[in-house]
């Protein structure tokens, strides 16, 4: 299952620009203060390209895709 | 069995300890006393595995929780036991440095620790330096302590890396609460940890302050040991500001140990037990604590900085009668959205506390009328 990926946000870097939620509303919505609430499940295959864009386009590089089984 | 606060103030030189000592810790099932209740043996193994003679031991005496006094007390009255635990950690983990990280306002504790250090003859004494932890709520969090010791800023950092991977000086680091280290000290000396827990009784009890509770002691026993309640109680705060309000009749039966409380969905946290008297207003009390916790956010993560402020503001509006009527439903929505979205657990702890208030004080929150803001608890 090594290809199971999750979206994670570096909460300190995140500035609440909201680009990620615009690119990927299927998995990311914004709270009342403009900060992302991210679906905690694995990213479905068909959404991976958009998730990748969310990672690359974040102006403060706060979004990452991480292997699901990597332990914290 | 010898208890922490009845133990001799000082034993002889430390016995030799090897890696096998971690097994003894594991068998004692000791969990950390700083608030998170994490198994001590697991933490030591993780550092031991990576140390290679570089590890750093941080003796955590920051004690930033406003109502807690037990860490100060153990440093002041049993400083040698804390140093025993710290030196053993240094030996077993092959540490290169030991740092006493003591709250900047805990002067008596610091001078007792320094005096004890001056009396020690073990080689580990030479590894010790002292740092003053800023008097902020989050300064005692592991990553905040490490951030402060590395860069002089006591704010939490993003994980990974975790302390055992990369901590002080980028070396594997053990951050351990002073009460936990004192327990380790006794375990090494006597072959058995006392399995007691230090709790701080606060609020409407006859004698507020620290009490050493044997395993199996209930909240009722502890309150009785402190002379009983001063008056009838509306609720009991179990675990301090990151803990939960509990109805008194439920609270009295609860045993003061981490494992059992966890099975009840509660936590002992830093060990504060607070009694809210029946004549105090639970809504105003909760709003006050929420304002404190919001102000103690280190303002790094949006959901914590803006979220806790919004939660505290909504509580305050309900408390002072200026709510538009929708604040309670906002609070109920936000308590589901905010947790798990900070670099540290500060927002999670604050929301856990607020959720318990909304549950236990359901009626008071729904029917609150503004009244004068006299604080009675």
If you had to describe this structure to a student in words, what would you say it looks like?
- The complex is a heterodimer of chains A (about 70) and B (about 375).
- Chain A has about 70 residues and is α+β, with helices and mostly antiparallel strands.
- Chain A has a single domain, classed as 2-Layer Sandwich (Alpha-Beta Plaits).
- Chain A has 2 helices and 4 strands; from the N terminus they run βαββαβ.
- Chain A has a two-stranded antiparallel ribbon with strand order 1-4. In chain A, strands 2-3 form a two-stranded antiparallel ribbon.
- Chain B has helices at about 20-30, 40-50, 70-75, 80-90, 105-120, 140-150, 180-190, 220-225, 250, 260-265, 280-295, 300-320, 325-335, 345-360, 360-365; strands at about 55-60, 95-105, 130-135, 175, 195-205, 210-215, 235-240, 245, 270-275.
- Chain B is globular and about 65 Å long.
- In chain B, the strands form 2 sheets. Chain B has a 5-stranded mixed β-sheet with strand order 6-5-9-7-8, sandwiched between helices.
- Chain B contains 15 helices and 9 strands.
- By secondary structure, chain B is of the alpha/beta class.
- Chain B folds into 3 domains: about 5-190, NADH-ubiquinone oxidoreductase 51kDa subunit (Rossmann fold); about 195-275, Ubiquitin-like (UB roll), CATH 3.10.20.600; about 280-365, NADH-ubiquinone oxidoreductase 51kDa subunit, iron-sulphur binding domain (de novo design (two linked rop proteins)).
- The interface of A and B includes residues 13, 14 and 31 of A.
């Amino acid at each position: 299952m090594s290809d199971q990926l999750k979206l994670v946000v570096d909460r300190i870097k995140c500035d609440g620009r909201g680009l990620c939620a615009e690119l990927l509303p299927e998995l990311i919505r914004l709270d009342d203060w403009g900060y992302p609430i991210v679906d905690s499940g694995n990213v479905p295959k068909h959404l991976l390209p958009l998730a990748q864009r969310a990672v690359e386009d974040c102006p403060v590089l706060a979004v990452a895709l991480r292997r699901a089984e990597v332990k914290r | 069995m010898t208890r922490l606060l009845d133990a001799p103030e000082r034993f002889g030189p430390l016995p030799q300890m090897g890696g096998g000592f971690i097994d003894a810790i594991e068998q004692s099932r000791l969990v950390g006393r700083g608030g998170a209740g994490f198994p001590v043996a697991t933490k030591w193994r993780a550092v031991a595995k990576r140390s290679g003679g570089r590890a750093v031991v941080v003796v955590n005496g920051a004690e930033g929780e406003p109502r807690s006094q037990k860490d100060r007390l153990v440093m002041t009255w049993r400083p040698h036991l804390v140093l025993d635990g710290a030196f053993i950690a240094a030996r077993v983990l092959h540490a290169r440095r030991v740092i006493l990280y003591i709250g900047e306002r805990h002067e008596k504790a610091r001078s007792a620790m320094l005096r004890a250090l001056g009396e020690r003859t073990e080689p580990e004494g030479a590894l010790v330096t002292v740092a003053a932890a800023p008097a902020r709520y989050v300064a005692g969090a592991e990553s905040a302590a490490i951030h402060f010791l590395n860069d002089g800023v006591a704010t939490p950092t993003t994980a990974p890396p975790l302390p055992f991977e990369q901590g002080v000086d980028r070396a594997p680091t053990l951050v351990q609460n002073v009460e936990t280290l004192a327990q380790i000290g006794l375990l090494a000396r006597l072959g058995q940890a006392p399995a007691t827990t230090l709790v701080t009784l606060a609020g409407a009890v006859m004698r507020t302050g620290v009490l050493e509770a044997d395993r199996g002691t209930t909240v009722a026993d502890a309150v009785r040991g402190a002379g009983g309640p001063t008056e009838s109680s509306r609720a009991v705060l179990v675990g301090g500001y990151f803990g939960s309000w509990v109805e008194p009749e439920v609270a009295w039966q609860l045993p003061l140990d981490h494992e059992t409380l966890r099975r009840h969905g509660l936590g002992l946290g830093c060990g504060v037990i607070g009694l809210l008297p029946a004549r105090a207003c639970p809504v105003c009390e909760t709003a006050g604590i929420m304002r404190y916790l919001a102000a103690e956010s280190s303002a790094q993560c949006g959901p914590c900085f803006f979220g806790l402020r919004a939660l505290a503001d909504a509580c305050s509006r309900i408390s002072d009668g200026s709510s538009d009527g929708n604040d309670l439903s906002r609070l109920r929505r936000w308590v589901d959205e905010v947790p798990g979205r900070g670099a540290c657990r500060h927002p999670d702890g604050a929301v856990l506390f607020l959720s318990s208030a909304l549950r236990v004080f359901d009626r008071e929150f729904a029917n609150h009328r503004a009244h004068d803001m006299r604080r009675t608890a």
